[in-house]
Amino acid sequence: MVRNALAVVSARGGSKRIPRKNIIDFFGRPLMAWSIRAALDAGVFRKVIVSTDDAEIAAIAREHGAEAPFIRERFTDDHSPISTVVADAVEIMRDRFGENYDVVAQIMPNCPMRTAEEIRDAYRNFTDNKLDFQLSSFAYGWMNPWWAFKISEDGAPSPLNERGLKSRSQDLEKLYCPTGAIWLAKTAALLRSKNFYGPGFRLYPIPWQSAVDIDDYEDLEMARAVYLMRNGSGH
User: Fold this and answer.
1) How far is CA 205 from CA 5, 15, 174, in A?
2) What are the structural domains of the chain?
3) Tens-binned pLDDT, residue by residue, of the chain (235 aa)
4) For the chain, where are the alpha helices, taking DSSP H only?
């Protein structure tokens, strides 16, 4: 099933909320190693690379089976959009190494619970439906955004959607939140738009447990709880 597809795991060395987040221990492996392993085991990519500005992260990536063919020199700050970073990696692979890919995937290193099978299924949906862009997502559950409020400085609440407050939860449409777990794009389309939210993009639902995205220590504790819920304490 391997096609001419590239998986990019973007893992900067800097992280403000959890220092060295991408290589902290998560049940016996560096955090990003779970994403590398899932991408490799999915069996749909010709190559899995880590784009990083950090030599230690590059070495750890290689230890866990990925390639780290370059040290990132651009877009190393925490403001650069991930789409830009992935497009840059594609261009480096083309211009420096002469490698061209039909499809590119962005596999976020801080989503350790997404599985190889889910990557395979997402890839199959992407190719079967001949999409240009596909972003993983999960359905909102008990945190229902139909019931969201803003609170002004003087404490007055104002609803974002009046209709949602007047409807039963079972009567409201499902809403979905994008997650960086598995983003796919045709390479030419991404290089044109420089954004995975390109023309005609589609959302691909995965379980919320697989979508857990670790940004801070609370997220990390939730991811650990989800891991134990799935695998038991004997991991």
Assistant:
1) 21, 28, 11
2) 5-140+175-231 (3.90.550.10)
3) 557 999 999 999 878 889 999 999 999 999 999 999 999 999 999 999 999 999 999 999 999 999 999 999 888 777 789 999 999 999 999 999 999 999 999 999 999 999 999 999 999 999 999 999 999 999 998 888 999 999 999 999 999 988 888 888 788 899 999 999 999 999 999 999 999 999 999 999 999 999 999 999 999 999 999 999 999 865 5
4) 31-42, 55-63, 82-97, 116-128, 162-165, 187-193, 217-231
Tokens of 64: 């866990």
Distance CA 192, CA 185 (A): 11
Which tokens belong to 2? 């391997």
